[in-house]
């Protein structure tokens, strides 16, 4: 009898849960699944903005053209380079900032707000501002470097593809370090104070404290933060689009996809690039999750 | 607590009822509202024409003035929609609007390279303009705007690449205006070095548009044609990989860092003007719009800047050329007020309005008669020179590449940019560019046969 009632109630609860979830699921289906499926579908057609017989099924033509295009592989290379360099720099700087904020108890609230400013400015706006700061003739960055004596004549930051990449990474690190710092700060605060006090009593140096206590305990937070940032970095668009001056030699995958989708109006080809971008991002996230799962299992053992 | 809740509930109720009733009724404007409805029954509802007409301050002002004038005459209303500064972004925006069959814009500002791309979305203006009216415009631009027999846009103003020079600096160091690229190199280097010795350490010889965008294709066209090179042959095949083009590109590559700032590879028109206007360059390639701004009374260069044709090469087939730019006005196929929109286009491109724009803004007209207008020539003597230059224009290969022009142009500017930046050797990059353009030409031939035959 009781079993039947329990069954009835659990069924009822499950139904209720689905009922409450359904509006959210519908929204996700409309805003997430539908565009995604449509992109996959379009990537197998020759749909184009200004080409009337468009929309015919062309099999894997788009993908084979994509793989034959050296510009695409350049874009993949650029994206991976950007993601690896910027995320590692952000992790290091973010940790430093978080650690300092954690120890400094006097101005914590104020500092936390101040640190967030770069993150709060819309990327397009900060990219434009940085673009002017990097300008070779009036840019303030060249002025400062010249004044300090690091360079003797102005560098044209956003003219050559290598320096543009450097500039893009600088701006991204400036912008996202606060995000990383806040995530890690939350992790630091969850470490019980006793650990720090015990270390203090034992007279452990700060380096050893970081290396042997803080970092291992912060690992789960770190993994989550890195996943977030890597996925974000792989999709990077606005910074590259504005600072990269439309130059293909420093374009990322999303800039490449946009080029075909909008500039050239070849929706089919652009969709195939977008689909590939999706698969690469998915692959990386699966990789991350397996690694972190394995780590967690190790910790649990 | 309970009181708070009640207040909240009342507030919500009031807000919802306000929302449902609409602004008129909710604020007690009952009388006004009823008056309006009577008026709208008696009078024809006013028509709102939405137009895109440039974004630079001067353009916008002139357009607003014209709109007000037209509003007074016809009683219709004009709404000006501002546009992004960069032409590629404008085109993207337009294509998105057209793709969604948007009725939000009636009149579109069409670049000289877009007729092929936008033809399917614009109405045929030959049905609204008489043959005689059309013949009053420059034929080159009318031909450019005619796609498969349909005139998709009426020329509004013309642009041509011109060569700006600092009169005062040429006089100070005893130089003549350079007419060949060789002379340009000598004069630019000399003035640049002497000015630097005299304390202006940021002085450069020459600036142009070198960012990887449409403007670089424009500049490259001028380089190629000024030395007897070309991009497409008489039968519509790619002939970009020829000796004159190669030597010219090598020459420009050598300029960068010596007489041209290396930042030029990130400059558009406005960045180049910024450098020139702050007194940091002797020569500049730009469109005519900069002349009025440089000679404005509040600019410290006023009276020191003049413009002429761009320098030329010295080999066979060389000449002083400028790339044709400029904008036309087209009416959207999806517009709900096509008749009124055409009327406004006619008003904006009329003799009187183009003359006003030329006098007040120095904007170059598209009607040949205006270049012989006494009053205009006394007020803007530069137009006498410009009418000569309009005889030596270079067209970007928009007709040859048709709806694939954007891809062709992107191939050109990306490739030229990497050559100038020294990322790729010019020889092999030019060969690859030739192959890619040939491929596009083959594709455009096939697709236009497939899709556009028998349309209209």
Q: Averaging pLDDT over every residue of chain A, what do you get?
A: 86
**Radius of gyration of chain A, rounded?**
24 Å
Q: What is the count of β-strands of chain B?
A: 12
Distance between the termini of chain B: 71 Å
Biggest interface and its residues per chain?
A: A-B, 25 and 42 residues
Name the quaternary structure: heterodimer
Largest sheet of chain B: 4 strands, mixed
Structural summary, described in words:
The complex is a heterodimer of chains A (301) and B (456). With 301 residues, chain A is mainly alpha-helical. Chain A has a single domain (64-300), classed as MetI-like (MetI-like fold, Orthogonal Bundle), CATH 1.10.3720.10. Chain A contains 13 helices and no strands. Chain A has helices spanning 2-42, 61-68, 70-103, 108-115, 117-120, 123-133, 140-148, 161-190, 193-202, 206-234, 238-243, 253-263, 267-300. In chain A, helix 1 (2-42) runs antiparallel to helix 13, helix 8 crosses helix 10 (206-234) and helix 12 (253-263) packs antiparallel against helix 13 (267-300). Chain A is flat. Chain B is an alpha/beta fold. Chain B has a domain at 48-158 and 325-390: Periplasmic binding protein-like II (D-Maltodextrin-Binding Protein, domain 2). Chain B is built from 21 helices and twelve strands. In chain B, the strands form four sheets. In chain B, strands 3, 6, 11 and 12 form a four-stranded mixed beta sheet that branches. A four-stranded mixed beta sheet of chain B has the order 8-9-7-10. Chain B has a two-stranded parallel ribbon with strand order 1-2. In chain B, helix 4 links the parallel strand 1 (48-52) and strand 2 (77-81). Chain B is globular, with a radius of gyration of 26 Å. Residues 10-43 of chain B have low confidence and may be disordered. The A-B interface holds A 49-53, 135-138, 154, 156, 158-161, 245-249, 259, 262-265 and B 88, 91-92, 95-96, 98-99, 117-118, 120, 202, 210-213, 261-266, 271, 274-275, 278, 280, 403-404, 406-407, 410, 414, 417-418, 421-423, 447, 450-452, 455.
